[in-house]
């Protein structure tokens, strides 16, 4: 049984998500700036070193009110709903937005943002298509230097190397803690629920890092102390699943998986491992180290080459503890969708069943999804 | 109690109709089909009671009940609930051991299921977020033409070429139908066009899991010969017919009852085995 203390701890990441706006306002009233960004290619360390609270913009689950007048409906929901948030004023509290050139949609979002939302520091971060090799590296290093320079101009102060080194450590610590939590959830059954592990990452994307690391540290300590309790339903053990895709921001996906007897033990999401798997080297020149980290990190399918991503997914499955893979694929995200048949074939050849879910950030058709996930888990269980 | 007398039940609460099947010793003793209502809990009781009465069986005699369909979680008296995908697979395999592909076309969704020779689900494809290619689409069209489904089936076999219906969306398809009526296109042509549109949509789902013989169609729309024939022509295959005039609409409930029967047997053998301290971990679900 869970103690009251556990239950109290469990809601804390969610509380950070709920209090996201409030924390941003507090940050601002203390004299700081708050800047939003997209994807996980923006070196947040630079923002942190400049005293800026960086907020990852994750779109919304609701209907689009105004963005459809600007973009076609076959643009992904992340871009459409985020633009919509900007247009209706939901993001007015931000002092700026940094958009990386992850994909063409993002680049065009920058133009739309500049023309229609116009607020404070709006910056397009150049990002090479080919992330391996000197050409891409030199190009991105230039872009990182330019980002730092533009930000310094906007803030009216310079960002020292020392400050950068401190910020790198702060971010590395948060990543290390997220990895620790990830390994714990994988190794200690029932220690952390599907939803809580998702919320731990989602809250990291929008909270002051020091505060978030502190909560992570306390959670890990607390959970390691209490004996691992397996929350599996009597009779049937939880089916261990890997979730593959880009963004999962609606916790109902994980709730349904859990309701049907599934436990998400690993993922390759950009709201998951892809955000925290790689550290910035602490023993070299900070901007160079930052450049290298963001190019060498687990890549987005928008970037080439893809082998590293494939290997990461397959290595996750080679640990012999994953019984099924659920691909949660955002509609109109071509790079993820193109990768899917290849990955699916690879996974199935390992004898692991696969389910694909068509997603548009927030889920619709809860019962249909429940049927599909339940049937999938029945397949994994073998009848 | 010998297995020959064991009574199990399957209750399938669908989006438009609800079904219950009673098995005695693994054989169909009775079944019932009724409309679904806004209260799945009540519907479940009603259809279950109906099936019990027609078999002359008391509720207490049923040893294991499995719920399935959209309202599966609302079948309060069920011992467990299983997805309709597993149930249709189980039901079809129970009747036809050679079946490898099952197409279930219900009121709200369509599922193509591929199974192996033991009846285990290997893969499935299901429509999501859209009722194109389902019974609901046809109900909607029948209503806009002022016809009953049975009239549509009958008219399908009258002379005429299928009219072109290009919209998958029910709302747009309805306006296409209205246009065709205004252009005085004969109803049999419009109906054939609609059946073709539904069959096309179903065929893309089937192709996602692969057409492997034998193939059977289940669910309410399997009773619509117009759709069945059109789909057979598109896929260039013949569906196998269910033995003994079993209603294709009850296959999900049948599968649920069969799962109950097998479960009940394995529970039985587990208890029996527990007595001699052996094999207690067998027969885990």
From TrEMBL, chain A:
Asked if the keyword Iron belongs to this entry, the reply reads yes
**Mind telling me which InterPro entries this protein's record contains?**
FldB/FldC_alpha/beta
Which family does the record assign?
A: Belongs to the FldB/FldC dehydratase alpha/beta subunit family.
Whose protein is this, by species? Desulfomonile tiedjei
Q: Name one Pfam family in it.
A: HGD-D
Keyword annotations from UniProtKB, A to Z: Iron, Iron-sulfur, Metal-binding
The molecular function GO annotations come to:
iron-sulfur cluster binding; metal ion binding
Q: Which named protein is this?
A: 2-hydroxyacyl-CoA dehydratase
